[in-house]
Amino acid sequence: MEHAIQNPARRTFIKASALVGGGLALGVSLPSMAHQHLGSDFNPSAFIHLYKNGDVVLFCGRCEMGQGISTALPAAVADEMEADWSRVTVKQGEGNAEKYGPQATGGSASIVTMYEPMRQAGATAKLMLIAAAAKVWRVSAEECEASNHVVIHTPSQKTLGYGELAELAAVQEVVEAPTLKDKSQFKYIGKALPRHDQSMVVVGERTYGVDTKVPGMRYAAIVHCPVLGGKLKSLDDTDARAVAGVIDVVTIPRLDVPFGSVGGVAVVADNSWTAQKAVKALVVEWESGPNGNYDTKAYRAQLIANVEKPAEKVAERGDLTAAFETAEHKVSATYTGGHLCHAPMEPNASVVWVKDGSAEVWASTQSPEDIQNVLGDYLGIEPKDVYVHVMMSGGAFGRKFKCDYVQEAAAISKHINAPVQLIWTREEDMRTGYYHSINAQHIEASMDADGNVTGWLHRAAFPSISSLFNPALERAPANSLGEIENHPFGIANLRSETGEAPAHTRIGWYRAVYAIFYGFAYGSIADELAHKAGMDTVTFLHKLYDNNKNPEHKEQVARSKAVLQLAADKAGFGRKLPPGEGIGIAVHHSFRSYVAMAVHVRVTGDKIEVLNVDCAVDCGQVLNKDGATAQQEGAVVMGMSLSLYTEIVFKNGAVVNSNFHDYPVLRINEMPNVRVHFVDSDYPPTGLGEPGVAPFPAALTNAIFAASGTRHRDLPIKPMAI
Amino acid sequence: MSSVTINGKEYPIDVAPDMPLLWFLRDRLELTGTKFGCGSGLCGACTVHIDGTATRSCVMPISAVAGRSITTIEGLSENGDHPVQKAWLKHQVPQCGYCQAGQIMNAASFLANNKQPSEQDIEAAMQGNICRCGTYQRIKLAIADAADELAKEV
User: Fold this and answer.
1) What is the least distance, in Å, from the CA of A242 to any CA of chain B?
2) What residues have CB less than 8 Å from A691, skipping those under 6 apart?
3) Nearest Cα residue in chain B from A626
4) Cβ-defined contact of A634 to B135 (cutoff 8 Å)
5) A449 shares contact with chain B (CB less than 8 Å)
6) ipTM score of the complex?
7) pLDDT digits (tens, 9 = 90+) for A375-400
8) Fold of the B3-75 domain
């Protein structure tokens, strides 16, 4: 028996049904899925299962890669449901947007998209349990309340457990527009909750995509075409086929779609090691194609040249020429950064089993929908016939949004007619990425005698993510520079321009995306301007925000200023420090959240030690305080890696780096003391996976300047000579 | 045929002698708790104990461990209650968790040999283990805690 209601105000749709064997199942349909509301496809098994023994299983439709979403969202359900968290098990939903809503997990959007619907589902379940209890007791539901997995009849203090009520609850009417809790009533939301899967992790039982085992499964390794757009010239696989245990060699042509293979040669064997060994025995020659001359050293120099001369206008306001003519001070600077690869600890891996008219996939992924679409197209089957088991990702940071590695496994499985696990080696992972944009930004800013910024010319040049979808793009499109005209700094006269920057490799989302380099440029030049004006950076930044008179920016200004002051206070910005030490500060608003960082360094000659980092965060209502704190700690580590050391270098069209010895991510011996401070905010919750990375690079380089007088404008500060 | 003891159980070595221990564990025995990260001994994700000493299993040929005793994350403790595991839970160390088996195995071996580690000792001992999520601060706190716990047990 099924019931359904529609809440027209929010267009969220909740549907309840009985579980097989008794119990309550409750599903939610999101506004974006509205067209399916009354269709028979709507499977109500999503999200909440309450069993007769009182066990609750909550499904997480968003992909988990370590960011903690599979704890934060179910905890919001449990809170509204008045469920006992210790009775709750969390399961990862399979790839099914009809059941779970949009699952493509990126842009720090999970909390923004799912928070309200999840709470509504929990609140609805609670009301149905109360209705069931009221029926048993033959009393009015208004005399009952729910708390910690039981319903209580308040006048008599009789109780019934959720398990006992599960079956009856399933046939109660679905309550329309349930009232959600007030913040003061939260039990789990905003508290420090343990992650649901930690006890499995510490005993090695948490299984990731790479851990999948399927009966009859073969193992594959691959070597890719090293240059984008190149192709196979010759292949001699005699030695590879001679390796004991090798089953087949499969040539995979380039699939010219954004998330398709760049082309490669795979070896299939009876274990991963044999496959990897045999790949090394392949004699392969590649034709480089049009990108064979790509050289990042020369390219960065070209980007600098392109932003230090007039470029294509994107946006303009006020009268910049007049502002520059009447300026008391002018500061101009060019900031650059290199390509980055995500390098999650789990390299790309999946198991694919192509069958007759369907395919089954086990993958660490951020976007099961893209797997369904890409494989559907590639195999000539319906996306819905691609069943995706969404596996835990051993880190992703944007890389596993793109399913080229899954499509390759599909090509191999199709060829050998068996399930196959393709694991990329670290070298292939590093050399076949979707890299963060190499970039250059040139800013010229003018000030009056009182340190008010009067004009701002901002030129940016970087191969954009849009180039992945339109390789003919000569420069980043206007919407990739939207950040500049919308930045909450108060600048009356402004002009933004985009410089020539064609892409010669695949560009992709990397944790914090463009906010990495915008945050660096904005945070750096603010510090440079403050010094020019003879003011401390915190006072200068407050003034810069206060000068923003755009009423639409009122909230952004207030929240930016609040995190700025909080970070400054916690770090003791402005206090006297020993010689060689300095504190730098930067603020950045991205992905709807606000983060300020104060970085305290000690500089001794060439040695840079990061001692303390104070992070001030306004992400609205915090869901899991411990998880949110962990995201900031991680953002600092990623920020340090990319500020100090990591850069992907291309020569002759191909990546030179190969493994962690020449892509030196941060190690524990350089870990600073990170302190995370949250603004107690009543704003709706916003994401945290990415925003923390953005202010770090500028806060660090500002600190180095304060400590040593050296201004670093090019990232990474200490590139490896490779 | 030579054999190797893994978590107290003896297994024949029935694979190519140059197969690294990591792949013997993962593909032959399907013990997947030990992770593949770099394949070159650079990241520590594959750390196991060989006769009690933390070793990178991705660069250790199976033939070299014949007759020896291996402990993996699955065999570190009976009930997941090694002081290092408990400290990891207390400090909620893992984010994605992928590197943590290697971190835990490395820390357990280190603490067996250094009962009162300083912060510098911990950093030096754990430098070979990369965590891309950035859990280092919690790892340091958890190891210090586990050291205190181990000191009580003696």
Assistant:
1) 14
2) A108, A512, A515, A588, A589, A590, A591, A593, A594, A595, A617, A619, A635
3) B92
4) yes
5) no
6) 0.98
7) 999 999 999 999 999 999 999 999 99
8) Ubiquitin-like (UB roll) (3.10.20)
